[in-house]
Amino acid sequence: MAVTGTIREWHDDEGWGVIDSSDTPGGCWAHFSAAAVEGYAAFRPGEAVWLEGETPGQDGYAWRAARFWPRDAEPVDRRSRPDEGAAYRSTLTLTFDDDADFRRRR
User: How far apart are CA 1 and CA 67, in angstroms?
Assistant: First the structure.
């Protein structure tokens, strides 16, 4: 169940912040991946949000946000949107020299 909260601090460059709520004493650690918003997740101190927290917490906080979103908006389920492409994917191919070729070049 979502409770009301307020962004205490948000670090756009690192993608995390802390949300204060009477239901999460000491603050709730929040990561951008838990933000139920469309597009880039950016918040500002003092912004009102809905918060779904969980324990154990993270990084010294007893609580961690499972999901949060601005109080004046509906949550967006970013993980199950059928119109979005696949997650980032990368490959790396390593090719090693044949030992004989290596000895000839020495």
Answer: 10
* pTM for the full predicted model: 0.72
Can you say whether the dihedral through the CA atoms of 91, 13, 31, 71 is positive or negative?
A: negative
Task: Answer for the pair 84, 76: CB distance below 8 angstroms, yes or no.
Answer: no
Burial class (CB in 10 A: 0-12, 13-18, 19+), 81: exposed
Dist. CA 22–CA 62, nearest whole Å: 13
Q: 10 Å Cβ neighbour count for 42?
A: 13
Residue of 30, 26, 53, 54 whose CA lies nearest to 42: 30
- Asked if 1 and 14 count as a contact pair (C-beta separation under 8 A), the reply is no
Per-residue pLDDT of the chain (106 residues; tens, 9 = 90+): 899 999 999 999 999 999 999 999 999 999 999 999 998 899 999 999 999 999 988 999 999 999 999 999 999 987 654 555 556 677 888 877 666 665 666 6
